[in-house]
Each structure stands twice: as structure tokens, then as C-alpha cells.
Amino acid sequence: MWRQLRLLSPFVAPLKSSFRQVPYTWSLMETFSADTANMAEEKSFSRMKNLFLAFVLGGPGSGKGTQCERIVETYGFTHLSAGDLLRREIASNSEHGAAILDIIKEGKIVPSNVTVKLIQRELESSESSRFLIDGFPRSDENRIAFEQIIGREPDLVLFFDCPEEEMVKRVLSRNQGRVDDNIETIKKRLTVFQELNLPVVNYYAEKGKLHKVSAVGTVDEIFERVQQIFSNYKCLLDQSSDENFPVMSTALHKQ
Ligand SMILES: Nc1ncnc2c1ncn2[C@@H]1O[C@H](COP(=O)(O)OP(=O)(O)OP(=O)(O)O)[C@@H](O)[C@H]1O
Ligand SMILES: O=c1ccn([C@@H]2O[C@H](COP(=O)(O)O)[C@@H](O)[C@H]2O)c(=O)[nH]1
Ligand SMILES: [Mg+2]
């Protein structure tokens, strides 16, 4: 860092500077670092502003991940599952890994700043311009933290509405070795869903951003409903709006 600064600015004093030079050097360094930080923040702000963001909500096992896969194939979104990002943190033995594992086993919600930072890292590092944020926000606190850190709201919110019985059946037959796919944890997740997730759903309904989709039926039937909703967003049908959009899918050709 010191070496880089000295190379970059002729005004930065050498390491063995006289005592009188030090405050001057520090103040220049502070200005330099503050400018760099401001530039990075502005760049991030302008990127965030131009993204198309869709939140995908629904109870445990309602089919969020399954439908996200179909949306990705058809509309070229990048899929960010908050749960998957947290599981990746656990698998990588990161600083918060052990604490996250305990929270997931209990079906509780990981502190907002941890999850939002993981999402932020993905949004900033990807070149995609449209994202599905699956399984987030899970509480009003999550939602507010996202607005504060990312500086914006989603363009649309999908809510997969599924009867509890069906959700329990799907989770118990998922067979992916998840630590929270057992009846005890599912009961806790359903309580958290009722008490903390649903207020977020209601918030977006009041704001006119919510699209409620019945999650009963086959995967294809449910995806048809999603396509009906997306057909109202013309910007999503235009390939040129996202350079990273893959091949136009057959589903879109049919329309
Ligand atoms: N329409 C459907 N009919 C029957 N099974 C389905 C349907 N959609 C998804 N499933 C199955 O139900 C299970 C849960 O689906 P999925 O993982 O997509 O749910 P989820 O909402 O992402 O759950 P979680 O919040 O726990 O991550 C999976 O095994 C999936 O294959
Ligand atoms: O924003 C989030 C998302 C997830 N969690 C925790 O992870 C599990 C599993 O999430 P899935 O979306 O079902 O994969 C969830 O029960 C929470 O414990 C979270 O805290 N915050
Ligand atoms: Mg999922």
C-alpha cells in the first residue's frame, strides 16, 4: 500500500520522512483513500441502479429454486439463492460458517448484514444485469438492510403460494442431504415463514410489486403462470438488454 502510494503520488513523503512531514503525508493519504472509496461506492451505486432485480419468495419447499431454474433458462437471469450463498459460507469454513450452520439447523434467520453482504458481493462481481434473489428478504429487518446497503428496491417480487401440507411433503422428499430437511426443522421454518416472511410479502403487496403465483400443480403449469407475469415486463423479452443472455429458449419462441 505504502509503496503503491509513493509510486502514485509525488507528494507522498518517503517512509523515513521528518516528523513535520508526517501529518501532511497522512492527510494526503486519507484524502487519497477516501477518494478511492468514494469512486468505488459511486461505481457500485450506478451498477446497482441499472440492474433488474426480482425477489422470489415462498415458504420452504414451495418450489422457488425449481422455478428459478426455469426462469434462468428462459429469461437469462442470474440466480442468487440466499440459502445457497449461506450454505457455501458453511462449506468454505468461513468466519461465520459455524454460526450460520447453527442458525439454519434451527430454521432461524441469519443476521441481515451477513446475508446482504453475500448478495452484494455477487451483484457486484457478476456482469449480468438481471438477478433472481431467491429466498430473501425473509423479514422486514432483512428488507430494510438490503435497501440501506444496496440502496434500492426490487423491480418485482414473485410469491409462490403453496399449502403447508404440500410444502412439507416436497421438503421431506427432496433428498438433497440438507440439514434442515427434517420434520422438526420444517415446523420451525414454517413458523418463521408465518411470523417473519409473510409481513414482507404483505409489504410488497401494498406497494403493488407483488405477483402471487399458485404453486400447486406441475412444474410446467406453475412456470406457465410465471411466464404470464413476465410477459408484462417487455424489457425482459429483449435479448439485447442483456449481453449475457444465452440462447433464446423454446419457451419464448412459442409465445
Ligand atoms: N410443482 C412441483 N410439484 C412437485 N414437486 C415439486 C414441484 N416443484 C418443486 N418440487 C420439488 O419439491 C422440492 C422442493 O422444491 P424447491 O427446492 O424448488 O423449493 P424451495 O422453495 O426452493 O425450497 P427451500 O425454501 O427449502 O429452498 C424439490 O425436491 C423439487 O423437486
Ligand atoms: O435470506 C436468508 C436465506 C436463508 N436463510 C437461512 O437458510 C435456510 C435455508 O434457506 P432456503 O432458502 O430454504 O435455502 C433458512 O431456513 C434460513 O435458516 C436465512 O437466514 N436468510
Ligand atoms: Mg430453495
TrEMBL record:
ATP binds at G61, S62, G63, K64, G65, T66, R174, G217. PANTHER family: NUCLEOTIDE KINASE. Consists of three domains, a large central CORE domain and two small peripheral domains, NMPbind and LID, which undergo movements during catalysis. The LID domain closes over the site of phosphoryl transfer upon ATP binding. Assembling and dissambling the active center during each catalytic cycle provides an effective means to prevent ATP hydrolysis. This is UMP-CMP kinase. Monomer. It is found in: Cytoplasm; Nucleus. Keywords: ATP-binding, Cytoplasm, Kinase, Nucleotide-binding, Nucleus, Pyrimidine biosynthesis, Transferase. PROSITE patterns: ADENYLATE_KINASE. InterPro entries: Adenylat/UMP-CMP_kin, Adenylat_kinase_CS, P-loop_NTPase, UMP_CMP_kinase. Its EC number is 2.7.4.14. NCBIfam families: UMP_CMP_kin_fam (TIGR01359). It holds the Pfam family ADK. A ribonucleoside 5'-phosphate binds at R87, K108, I109, V110, G135, F136, P137, R138, R178, R189. One of its GO terms (biological process) is pyrimidine nucleotide biosynthetic process. Binds 1 Mg(2+) ion per monomer.
